[in-house]
């Protein structure tokens, strides 16, 4: 890796009472990279995402984004700096239309970053653009409750995109979807990656992770046990043991 | 409708109400009308935190009473004109609202509601034990019979009613402006999902503090003229259950989330209560509010505004 890392996670640790959720995780993500993060249930993937995004504060270690220390920053400040995430279970704003859901990051994250207000016409246009990107433009005026599961996941990704991030963390955005729906989301993620956005994909579905990732990181019981090229990582005996017992 | 036009309409309506009441010439009308309009302000103020942000405040009476007791304090130390007292009451209650927001910002749902209730009890205890403002025996604030404004002599009760009308215009304008602004969108994200709001770059903590401060300040402003209206004030009336319950019930029945909901709820419930006070008994008020609140929660959880919106949507389909 030659370029300075976009995201640098150093010795990050987090415990919940006596349970060690993350145990000294080191991870670096280069600009433009497509990284897959896998691990069995309860291995600490979502906790790591929460520590990176500021939803939880890590107890030890530090998280750096573009060389800047993020420790102590609230989640919204990290979003403003260019770190976006989608949630494992979609969390749309129920009382707003699909288009207005995308307006929120434009009104807050993008405005706070640029310092200038996004004009209404411009915001409308951008909302439609992001919805078209995920194929939801025909549902712009619908309420989130009118969407299907896969559309909800797309909305979740579109909303994360609307904050114009440098790094997008997609937390299990394909869980529970059918094969064709998974392909839909994968194509979408590849499109986003082609726009120059660095993507960390957290997923259980191996075929999806393998086809998407340039590099694969494996977490087991809060520890990183492998980090490297996907086909090498899956042949790693420790990884095989963790997955197949 | 543009804000400027809306403001003109609001002032025109307020002026028309005042002129109509003058034309009818009944002092009682001003006396009863004051209470109804006061509830418009309280309900609108509650709605900023409760309706827009989804944080249920059970301590409305405390903010109202703080405004009232600010007036009592100044009445005894250095009497000031009522408009100035409204401003001061707003500042005091706004500061307490900010403090409450800061102390309770980690609490959500029922826990936040309980904390606000506790705040009301603590403040009431403080006032009961503060001898200077009358303690538990209460304080007299006798209002002058009339006041001269702009060369005209106005009975004091009419003057207070006029001030409350103007305050209602201010409250409604504030609520409506918030609703359509960036701030209003931010408030709605807090109501819908705070975690997702943070992930979209919304500074939820700061927004909550703005809401508690604004809501508290408006409630304090509604309370500031109250000692002059009632002439004798004591803690159990200023911190009365009726204020807390009505501030919640009126937006809930009218419809939270919009500026017009609390207005409808306050006008409806306020008027019903004033009529019941005269025709049935002065103790029947809370019973009416209770029954209406329960029936609305069951039949129309989104209030009158929600009911109308659903009907309109159904007709469109």
Describe this structure in words.
The complex is a heterodimer of chains A (245) and B (317). With 245 residues, chain A is an alpha/beta fold. Chain A has 9 helices and 10 strands. Chain A has one domain: 3-Layer(aba) Sandwich (Rossmann fold), CATH 3.40.50.300. In chain A, 40% of the residues lie in helices and 24% in strands. In chain A, the strands form 2 sheets. Chain A has a 6-stranded mixed β-sheet with strand order 6-7-8-3-9-10, sandwiched between helices. A 4-stranded antiparallel β-sheet of chain A has the order 2-1-4-5, covered by helices on one side. In chain A, helix 3 packs across helix 4, helix 3 packs parallel to helix 5 and helix 4 packs across helix 5. Chain A is globular. Chain A starts with 6 loop residues before the first strand and ends with a helix. Chain B is mainly alpha-helical and 317 residues long. Chain B has one domain: ABC transporter involved in vitamin B12 uptake, BtuC (Orthogonal Bundle). Chain B has 15 helices and 4 strands. In chain B, the strands form 2 sheets. A two-stranded antiparallel ribbon of chain B has the order 1-4. In chain B, helix 7 packs across helix 9. Chain B is globular.
């Amino acid at each position: 890796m030659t370029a300075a890392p976009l995201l640098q996670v150093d010795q990050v640790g987090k415990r919940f009472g006596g349970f060690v959720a993350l145990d000294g995780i080191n991870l670096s993500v280069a600009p433009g990279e497509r990284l897959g993060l896998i691990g069995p249930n309860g291995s600490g993937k979502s906790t790591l995402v929460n520590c990176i995004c500021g939803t939880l504060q890590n107890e030890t270690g530090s998280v750096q984004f573009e060389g800047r220390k993020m420790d102590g920053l609230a989640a919204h400040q990290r979003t403003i700096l260019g770190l976006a995430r989608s949630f494992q279970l979609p969390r749309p704003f129920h009382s707003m239309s699909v288009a207005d859901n995308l307006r929120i990051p434009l009104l807050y994250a993008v405005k706070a970053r640029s310092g200038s207000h996004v004009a209404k016409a411009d915001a409308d246009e951008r909302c439609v653009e992001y919805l078209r990107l995920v194929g939801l433009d025909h549902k712009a005026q619908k309420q989130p409750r009118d969407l299907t599961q896969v559309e909800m996941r797309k909305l979740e990704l579109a909303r994360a995109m609307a904050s114009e991030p440098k790094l997008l963390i997609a937390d299990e955005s394909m869980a529970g979807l059918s094969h064709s729906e998974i392909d839909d989301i994968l194509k979408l993620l590849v499109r986003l990656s082609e726009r120059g956005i660095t993507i960390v994909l957290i997923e259980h579905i191996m075929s999806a992770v393998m086809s998407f990732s340039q590099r694969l990181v494996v977490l087991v019981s809060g520890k990183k046990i492998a980090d490297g090229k996907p086909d090498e990582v899956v042949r790693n005996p420790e990884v095989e043991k963790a997955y197949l017992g | 409708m543009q804000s400027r036009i809306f403001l003109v309409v609001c002032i025109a309506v307020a002026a028309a109400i005042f002129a109509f009441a003058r034309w009818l010439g009944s002092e009682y009308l001003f006396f009863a009308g004051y209470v109804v309009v006061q509830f418009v302000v309280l309900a609108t103020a509650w709605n900023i935190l409760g309706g827009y942000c989804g944080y249920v405040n059970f301590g409305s009476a405390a903010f109202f009473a703080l405004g009232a007791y600010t007036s009592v304090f100044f009445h005894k130390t250095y009497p000031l004109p009522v408009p100035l007292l409204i401003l001061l009451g707003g500042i005091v209650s706004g500061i307490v609202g900010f403090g409450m927001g800061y102390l309770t910002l980690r609490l959500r749902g029922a826990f936040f509601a309980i904390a606000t209730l506790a705040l009301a009890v603590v403040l009431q205890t403080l006032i009961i034990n503060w001898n200077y403002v009358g303690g538990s025996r209460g304080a007299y604030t006798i209002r002058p019979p009339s006041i001269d404004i702009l060369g005209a002599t106005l009975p004091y009760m009419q003057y207070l009613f006029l001030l409350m009308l103007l305050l209602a215009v201010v409250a409604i304008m504030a609520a409506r402006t918030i609703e359509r602004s960036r701030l209003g969108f931010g408030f709605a994200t807090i109501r819908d999902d705070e975690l997702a709001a943070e992930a979209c770059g919304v500074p939820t903590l700061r927004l909550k503090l703005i809401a508690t401060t604004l809501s508290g300040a408006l409630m304090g402003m509604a309370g500031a003229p109250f000692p002059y209206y009632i002439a004798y004030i004591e803690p159990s009336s200023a911190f009365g259950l009726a204020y807390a319950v009505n501030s919640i019930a009126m937006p809930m029945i009218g419809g939270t989330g919009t500026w017009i909901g609390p207005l409808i709820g306050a006008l409806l419930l306020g008027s019903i209560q004033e009529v019941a006070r005269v025709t049935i008994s002065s103790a029947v008020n809370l019973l009416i509010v209770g029954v209406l609140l329960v029936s609305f929660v069951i039949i129309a959880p989104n209030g009158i505004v929600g009911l109308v919106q659903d009907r309109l949507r159904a007709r469109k389909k």
